[in-house]
Fold:
Amino acid sequence: MKALLSRDAETMRPSPIRDLAKLAADPDIISLAGSQPSEEAFPLEEIREVLAGLVAKLPARALQYGLTKGDDELRDVALKMMARRGIEASREEVILTNGSQRALDLIGRVLIDPGDAVITEMPTYTGAIACFRNLRARLLGVPQDEDGMRIDKLERVIAKARVEGLDLKLLYLIPTFQNPSGATLSPERRKELIEIAERENLLILEDDPYSELFFDEQPPASPVASLSSDRVLYLSSFSKILAPGLRTAFLRGPQELIKIIEQAAQASDLSAGTLDQRLILELCHSGVMRRSIDNARVFYRKQRDVQLAGLEEFMPAGITWNVPRGGFFTWVKLPEAINSEALLQGAIKQGVLFVPGPHFFVDGSGSDTLRLCFSEQPAKKLRQGVASLATAVRFYDLPSTIPWALGECC
Amino acid sequence: MKALLSRDAETMRPSPIRDLAKLAADPDIISLAGSQPSEEAFPLEEIREVLAGLVAKLPARALQYGLTKGDDELRDVALKMMARRGIEASREEVILTNGSQRALDLIGRVLIDPGDAVITEMPTYTGAIACFRNLRARLLGVPQDEDGMRIDKLERVIAKARVEGLDLKLLYLIPTFQNPSGATLSPERRKELIEIAERENLLILEDDPYSELFFDEQPPASPVASLSSDRVLYLSSFSKILAPGLRTAFLRGPQELIKIIEQAAQASDLSAGTLDQRLILELCHSGVMRRSIDNARVFYRKQRDVQLAGLEEFMPAGITWNVPRGGFFTWVKLPEAINSEALLQGAIKQGVLFVPGPHFFVDGSGSDTLRLCFSEQPAKKLRQGVASLATAVRFYDLPSTIPWALGECC
Structure:
């Protein structure tokens, strides 16, 4: 069998987070390792209502093969959503995919040859790391501070890559409410990014699943894609603002590139689900999505507050964390004496799971960090989980004070 | 932009059939070029009923992220369906994908490196050609006769590939009611295939979308996968027997390989649609699928009969065709004087579309063949389409008799 595998397959590894998911199935374990939206935040009753209305008039073509690019009307909805976020685009610049992960792979397929370099934030989304790694890309990480990816470090990474003769293709980032750091890229840096992309002939892939899920105020900057139509691929999805089981994301990019991505999709999945697209369309037209987003903001803010209150209450000195302004995650910094992979073993004994930092770092660093999800668990368990984690932390001898700021670590 | 594309992307081409689909949107054109199931064959009323029942009790988790492998219960249904077809398997050997096309790509990704050889029937499914070609596989075609892939020719293709030092990985075929030839591989040849796969350390990918859609009698042989559990990947789907918009296929293979395919899927789409899977499960449990298959057999047999009657009535001597025993297509052989690509231009003027043979031949041959779809059009248009095609054919000077049998051509 082994002789039959491709070189891509030889590099493939199971998702560490999906592996933790197996442990999370134990009812005695509280998982803060996940990344799913809360089912409590789904507008379930309203989805039922809209679905019931759809059933009565369900056209046969909602069950037929659909366009590879996606339903025309739903692409128009995506255009309107993007316009509200500051991005002008035309239908020909948009394709719908079976979720954002599918789009990452399609983009990777049409841009990346083995050995090509992809720049990512460090830390970044594990699913993007896995996707680009499966394509045998060379991943180059750029540290962040509280204003997102550090441009000075980016320049250094690019310069080094040029010296090494690497083929730089893509800069992947989640500029708003980043997963896992929670950081948001400042408006100035967004502009600088575009300049660098122009200068270096790079494409930027802006992954934006969370920007609608702000807690306190709107994100301080429009999407990077609002600054350039030919340098930025903009990816967003209905998964976090409606329901992920409907597996529909939208991707906007230069028309020429979208056309090639469409060709890649034709031969690798044909299209996103037709009924799913129709249902999402109805949920948008009927206003359910808009209300769902409003509710989700309130819901996840409360969740965040419970988690932060728990951290304040239970964590010993020396452990620090950010205050996420949106999204699903709190990013925690440990004193150097604590290795987050080792801590996870202790935490499991206390009945709590999290994702150790190194999974988010393309260079395997970040062992003094970890990610806590606040989207999934009910409030009581959120609090209990943090308390159990604090118990696990207390097994370590901690120095009394640790000077630390986000700017220095991630 | 061009400098940024991957080598895979440089080889990508738009689907010729999807391009014809644009012409097919003209209401004055009758398309016999498609490959979609008829919306008339969808059990629309019953789907509405089941969906309505599902709505009332819709659990939130039907909208949540699902397992990459697919819903456990639906995998069990797939196991039962396979068992009825003669294939024994366990849950760990099955994964659900966003349709069969997604499975083709996943299989290709984990098996094929650029330059590796994939053997296909000649002619074969255009979507498989596009998928493997996008992975830069070397495609080797093996002619068929009325009993399917010719084993003597296969042996010759393999011997030649070995001499050339090609890395042979996969043998892709549609052994039952083949697309486009309609041929069904004989039981003897199925056994011989397994022996060859063992001897040559090849994997067989058996694509089986149509075997339930037989018109006259059950397929004369069990799936190739019923003969070997470790040499055959078996792919089937709900698209042709229920509704393709639900985008769900099932793939059975050696557990070790399914595990790697699952890893590839984790990083390239996360999972098939959760609501779609739930709906299909209900349609199976409620008996709708079983009745849908029974109805589809009757429906498509009538469609075939209309097309064949039209061919008998209108086609001049010298044009021959097979009698499909299942599936969606009639395969037509032209006299050598007629090139099917040129004929298509004439046919368009007469208001009818078909797919010229060369699109199905990995070596670009087959210019004296074409495929007619009988699944899509209503009876009146099926007949009219064939009449218009015959008019286009009559522009050519035809010899009075052409000796021909399927065995000699495809």
